[in-house]
Amino acid sequence: MIPAQFDAKLVEKKWYDYWMKNNYFHSKPDHRTPYTIVIPPPNVTGVLHMGHMLNNTIQDVLIRRARLKGFNACWVPGTDHASIATEAKVVAKLKAEGINKNDLSREEFLKHAWEWTDKYGGTILEQLKQLGCSCDWDRTKFTMDPDMSASVIRSFVDLYNKGLIYRGYRMVNWDPEAKTTLSDEEVIYEERQGKLYHLKYQIEGSNDFVTIATTRPETILGDTAICINPNDERYTHLKGKKAIVPICNRVIPIIFDEYVDMEFGTGCLKVTPAHDVNDKELGTKHNLEIIDIFNEDATLNSFGLHYQGKDRFVVREEISKELETIGALAKVENHLNKVGTSERTKAVIEPRLSDQWFLKMEELVKPAIKAVLQSDEVKLYPSRFNNTYRHWMENIRDWNISRQLWWGQQIPAYYYGEGKEDFVVAETPAEALELAKKKTGNVNLQISDLKQDADALDTWFSSWLWPMAVFGGVMNPENEDFKYYYPTNDLVTGPDILFFWVARMIIAGYEYADAKPFSNVYLTGLVRDKEGRKMSKSLGNSPDPLGLIEKFGADGVRCGLLLSASAGNDILFDEELCNQGKAFANKIWNAFRLIKGWEVADIEQPESSRVAIEWYEAKLQKTLAEIEDNFDKYRISDALMAIYKLVWDDFCSWFLEMIKPGYQQPIDRATFNKAIEMLEANLKLLHPFMPFLTEEIWQYIAERTPEQALIVSEWPKMTSANEKLIADFDFATDVISGIRTIRKDKNIPFKDTIELKVVNNEKASVFFDSIIKKLGNVTNLEYVSEKVDGALSYRVKSNEYFIPITGNIDIDAEITKLTEELNYTKGFLKSVQAKLSNEKFVAGAPEKVIEMERKKEADALAKITTIEQSLAGLKV
Known about the structure:
Layout: H1 8-21, E1 34-38, H2 50-68, E2 72-76, E3 78-79, H3 83-96, H4 106-120, H5 123-131, E4 141-142, H6 146-161, E5 165-175, E6 180-182, E7 187-203, E8 209-214, E9 225-228, E10 242-244, E11 251-256, E12 268-271, H7 277-285, H8 312-325, E13 329-342, E14 350-359, H9 365-373, E15 379-381, H10 385-394, E16 399-400, E17 402-403, E18 413-415, E19 423-425, H11 429-440, E20 451-452, E21 456-457, H12 459-463, H13 466-469, H14 480-485, E22 490-493, H15 498-512, E23 520-523, E24 527-529, H16 545-552, H17 554-562, E25 571-573, H18 575-596, E26 600-601, H19 607-632, H20 636-659, E27 667-668, H21 669-686, H22 691-701, H23 723-745, E28 754-759, H24 769-776, E29 778-784, E30 791-796, E31 799-804, H25 811-836, H26 839-844, H27 847-875
Parallel strand pairs: 1-2, 3-4, 9-11, 15-23, 22-23, 24-25, 26-27, 28-29
Antiparallel strand pairs: 5-6, 5-14, 7-8, 7-10, 7-13, 9-12, 10-11, 14-16, 17-21, 18-19, 18-20, 28-31, 30-31
């Protein structure tokens, strides 16, 4: 017994368990062509959000379609250890338990981190299963798995030995909340309203002052010079002089350098080499003292005098008041400036001098630039992101790959002495010991004499190896899996990590495998609310994805999301989209129940059913070609819309109506079998988008063995479509619509038969006459040479259709109604023609507007002709 309603909750669990039990998601190398996707690994700390829903639904559509098309489909899932985010969560958990991270050894902290990961780390992958994601769960990887970490360490050692990794004392981006350095790409610049403080520095040995504007008055405590352009005549008298820094009263030199812009501010610049990258360069050039005033959490250290221990922003307010009190504050202005913030913690970045590890990028990027911008080996969809890619790659700087964290792969550098160069780099402590013995000549060195670098590697330095490492390609490039599955086919991700991750994977692919990591990159848009705002917890505008699945079903949510998800364009999400998806699921379910509810008999097939089948097969083929073209162009939303229209409009609204048997009459077996065949073809096309509903119907249609499940069936074969047949049917539907309009307007019930006489000026095909007769309840369809008097009429293009009047129509009322409509249309035509005869309007209006007015004129003229013919027939 087929249930009256489609119950998504029961169906989803049933079929996902069935798919898992029969191992449909698992892939092993074989004779087939592989189709491979690696998941953009979500943070191990994460839970499903709308962005994940969109991204992973698209991936599942691609992998399920590939499976149906006979490829050996392999979708590798996994999670990223997310150094900064995970460490922050573990530190917060420990703090809540009264434990300070700094009181723990690295080993003790990592034990807590692994416990946290084991407890919460699989949450998001389990949630993806509820969405229907058909990942090869046997291949699930975590970027901190032993083999994955070994790949990262080997990569570091290899790049170091090639001279591409080095240690340097540089100005870096410091996140005072996470207490780690960040790469340039992890700093997000935001425009913020701040203040510009004009400070007075006294010239030593005089009562004169020089005024300097700064947005950060707290940093004066680290000032070691004042810099002026040597060509600035206003300040030539200050050459050789010194100035006194307010509050700390440090005497600093006044230096001259053309770096300073004479037109900006007062033309004087305070130089704080420890806290600004440009100031550091000036400091190095002029041999200035470097004074770091901040602790790692951006509180002031002992150089902060009586502000020691206070946060930088608290000090900013307090020091401005003190400067005002001592007469060193000339004025304060509002000032809009760009502030660097941490991509992860949102904390304001502090420039800081630090010893860090860097990767030289200038040579590494060249193959990756060529692959995307010259050879098209890797294609970005949409292609407009090529410009973004070009900008980043051609302006790349060395990558800061070290992080002051414990959660992550520990840098494999081992120190044997106190000097900056007293280290070796190796994959294991044992190998490091041998290298240290050779380097020092000290054969008595022990492993206990070595101290490993405390920093961890940037998470992106791990994930840039992802497409290779998941198949063991870094540690063992000759293994069967790597040789079979790599390069992968498609990558689906967001444009926000085009450089962080996508570009770096391309770089790594050419460096380690001498091959691209994937062929195509589908860049999704952001999911925004219906007002265009980015979804966030703080705004409270992000729905719970699992709540949506509970309410609308996974198929409804998938369908709703994808109906408006064109590549690279943001989605304005509204729950109504999911409701539309749910309604579509119900429409398909009810269509299936209608077919299965018909009684089947061994009777002759009606001409109308034979014609309907021939048309739908042509329409299916045309739509299939459209779907394939959309998939080739990564227009996934357009592909779904084509299927949606095929099923809702062509199959449910037209095909089933054309073949439906009369009331309490059976359907012939040939037509029924074809209807099932067409339904099954529709289910195959829909399966990647709505897997649960389609598998449920597929299994209800007939008893199937596991080998016959829809998930592993065959994608419909594409043949040429009869375009003329499709065009002829479109004409026929206009004829049927005309009949239905007259029946509605004249209150002629459908049960009442009518006659239809046609003046076939268009030489329209008669192939669909049996359909017109059935859907219009026409007893007699006759082609005539001239108009029919005493009949209702309408036109389709130049064809004229006449329905002889029956006794049920009030002719006088109809004449009155048509006369009113004729007069209104003539008045409308007059106003349109007045516009078109106005030379000023025609000369000034856009071409599209003129075209629209001319179309209005043509439509009105045609309507007037039709009404006049109808009136003439009625007045006979």
